[in-house]
Amino acid sequence: MKKENSGRTGASARMRADELVRLQIAALEAAPNAIVITDRKGTITWVNSAFQRLTGYTGEEAIGQTPRLLKSGQQSRAFYTEMWKTILSGRRWQGELINRRKDGSLYREEMTLTAVHGQGGEITHFIAIKQDITQRKQAEERAAWLAQVVENSSEMIAIGDSDLRITFANRAYLQALGYSEKEVLGKLLPSFQSPCNRPSLTEEIETATSEQSGWKGEVLHRRRDGTDFPTLLSTGLLKDNEGHLLGVFGSALDISERKRAEEELRESADRTRLLLDSLAKAVYGLNSKGECTFCNATCLELLGYRDSSELLGKNMHELTHYKRPDGTLYPLNECRGYRAFQEGKTSHVRDEVFWRADGTSFPVEYWSYPIRRKGELTGAVVTFVDITERKQAEEELRRTHEELNIALEESQQRARENEKLTELVDVLQSCQTVEEAYTFIEKTLPTILLCRAGALFMTNPSRDAVEAVAVWGESLSTEKVFRPDDCWALRRGKIHRVENAAAPLRCTHVCESPAGGYLCVPLAAQGETLGVLYMEGQAESSGPWAKAPEKQKEALERQAAAAGERISLALANLRLREVLRHQSTRDPLTGLFNRRYMEESLNRELGRALRGNLPVSLILLDLDHFKRFNDTFGHEAGDLVLREGAKILQSHMRGSDIASRIGGEEFVLIFPAMPCDTAHDRAELIRKELKALALQYRGQPLGQVTISAGVAVFPADGADAEALLHAADQALYRAKAEGRDRVVLK
Known about the structure:
- The chain is an alpha+beta fold.
- It folds into five domains: 20-138, PAS domain (Beta-Lactamase), CATH 3.30.450.20; 153-262, 2-Layer Sandwich (Beta-Lactamase); 270-386, Beta-Lactamase (2-Layer Sandwich); 398-570, GAF domain (Beta-Lactamase, 2-Layer Sandwich); 595-745, Alpha-Beta Plaits, CATH 3.30.70.270.
- The protein has 22 helices and 28 strands.
- The strands form six sheets. The protein has a six-stranded antiparallel sheet with strand order 18-17-16-21-20-19. It has a five-stranded antiparallel sheet with strand order 2-1-5-4-3, sandwiched between helices. Strands 7-6-10-9-8 form a five-stranded antiparallel sheet.
- Helix 15 packs antiparallel against helix 17 (549-585).
């Protein structure tokens, strides 16, 4: 019957251990990225399902092989040499490489390699996390190819956003117009079309493009030097895969040569008609006296006259150009437009004003061309355009430049944030304990996040409370411990922002509404909710959002989401490492260290004591008649005695002392830098406290718990670990031989 009870207890323990292992494996199996575990020599010991989907190899085919199974030959020997050098030094390696699947196809992956250290600090295994980036790389290459085709096209190609503002222009477009890329980006697509186009053309193109998905026809474009050239323009809409509008594009072919040939054919027939009717610009002619000889309808319209007779024979400078923009007189001899027939030079004036018939003025850009007959100057032809819209566009461009500067600063700010977040993750990955990670988070997050105060909350093991583990700022308006249901971010599983006290969904863990509101970011990793990142108020900012509070709030939300994602993954990995480390060094029943850890620690402490010429005391103790507890009350009662006894042993340990269970009821206590007599007194104190225990199991008293203990000291009783343990064992044997319930020195 006793053996059956013992078997059942052992089976129950194994079932619990098996269940824990099963849950851990299930968590790794559920990970979206491929995970491979190898031993120190690189032999694969475990892969998850994502690995099998990525490579085509089953677990049975991969386990026992090395990662060379996936080698494609695309990486050099130096690549792998550097990788091994990095991970064997205990540092994390991350990079991209090309591997080969089982079916022979190549794929690109992004891999992170992390070393797993044993109890003694040596590297025992490596964990590789792989992400397939083949499609992303192919998309990038395809986009680069298409961009090269467009850039090198001989046709003028420009792309605009949904507001028709240029976001891209190829080399042919810039060369044809004579502008730099900086001068073109952000301007309206129609702004580079010539004012000589018919007024309704721009509206016609926009309407056909939006309603009929495209327009094709002839359009005049204007170069930077003010000259126009004809093009055959095609437009269309840019949409994503879901049909959402991204912008518009235009492709234009310079047809100057063709149009020039056409003009030469018409020139002989009616030059005057061509000049007056074909040009959309305002045009008038001057004789050598500066008097008007002809004008077109556009000129009449812009100047506010009904009939050409009101202009013909009149001095155009005195009629339309007699004052400067500020209202002061503009002498004729200073007029740059008159140089055309005074000096025989073409004049181009970009920014002056003409005066209408009603006395109002408007900004113009005008060109004055000399007219020669048989080598003699006979007058000039003046063309001008109303640049009111251009002025407005220039102002709009100025505002656009300001917005672009803000966007650039915002981009730089994001780059700095990402750099800090990357550094945060790197340090968190190097932390040994979660407490160390919490301390670093508390010091670092205030330098990253744009908030006045905040805290990191973690869910406790029982998952019934969320507790603050890192706090920064002068004061917080939230409770330090609260139930998960008190936070809307944890309830909904997404970021929750509250602007003010009037918000309907305020978290109950926030005692009062902080100035500037607050933000809760849920922390989750591998399907598990870890806690919440809480921030309140907005920090004073001199950056790109100093004059845009809403953008500042959006920036904080973006920062918090990025920080929360990285912190979640780092803490989840750190917790997993702590669980694995604890399981490998601790006795599952008592929580004390196991034999393996004791042996490694004893050798380490003896080496340290030898260098410092210090003693090391060792106590080997055994529960007297322990079999009686198992036989009389059952193994669960025996486990109770072991656990309670372990608590007393642990209560007498200093920070550097080591308590371990090395067998069924055998324990070893290691006391660095403690002399033999002090260790003897400590053992006596433990013996008395154990004897004073009054344990009950299911209402039945278990009786006294006594121990026999042997004490030995290094180096007097043994020059190495084996000799010291043997000396303590001899002393323990004497204690039992002399009647038990006593402590004996070697």
